Amino acid sequence: MFVIVGIVVVILIGAVLTYNNLVGSRNNVENAFGTIDVMLKKRYDLLPNLVEVAKTYMKHENEIFTKLADLRARANTATTTDEKVAIENQISGAVKGLMVSVENYPDLKASEQFTMLQRSWNETEEQISAARRAYNAAVTAYNNAVDKFPSNIFAGMFNFKRKEVFVIAETERQNVNAKALFNS
Prior knowledge:
Elements: H1 2-57, H2 62-77, H3 81-102, H4 106-110, H5 112-147, H6 151-157, H7 170-173, H8 178-183
Helix pairs in contact: 1-2, 1-5, 2-3
């Protein structure tokens, strides 16, 4: 009788510890994403200023500005982490397109206001990159807890789902054409 009670107690303690580990891992992911969210908010606040300064010089680039405005609006209304991650990747690509277009406008590149905004943008990007690394580490630890036995049993019972890591967009993975950079 004591053996059966002992086994049940050990199983219950194991279940509680496993559940608490899953909750702690999920909370670490949410905390790490909260840090990214703060950095993204800072970046979203910089975006209109960057666009306005660029617009004064880049009269023929309306498509880029429209796309950035649309993405910023979508980013502010995104509710799930996965939505925010997807929109974030699209914004990164669109801003890279804007920065490439800036190369064709020497007056804009020389503008002190634009240079200051670009510097702020780059600093924010570096902070976002660091926050992404922390987030991805937290997601990996969480996903390991969700996938590994025996915690995967409890993860399934209590509806703990895998989380998506931040991935860089395909355009960011491409090699930089150094020759083109130095010929511009």
